[in-house]
Write a structure and sequence with these properties.
By secondary structure, this protein is an alpha+beta fold. It has three helices and three strands. Helix 1 packs antiparallel against helix 3. The longest helix has 16 residues.
């Protein structure tokens, strides 16, 4: 287990859909992943986010999250 500050929050909102919450303060249902692309790929493979949000997540959303993760890792 890691503390929240060491992890990235993935957020499900009513209007924006599923996004990364880099501030950790936006409203919505959140799930946490470690700050690496491997964690996101593992969550995609084992459907961890789908279980957390109790909904099906399209591949396009995962692709978008991977782009955002890539941008954050590059900083």
């Amino acid at each position: 287990m890691k503390c929240k500050k060491e992890m990235m929050r993935v957020l499900k909102t009513a209007d924006e859909g599923i996004i990364l919450d880099t501030t950790g303060k936006k409203n919505g249902r959140g799930a946490y992943l470690c700050k690496s692309m491997e964690c996101l790929k593992q969550a995609r493979k084992n459907r961890g986010l789908e279980r957390s949000f109790k909904m099906s997540i399209p591949n396009e959303v995962y692709d978008s999250l991977e782009k955002e993760f890539g941008n954050i890792e590059a900083e």
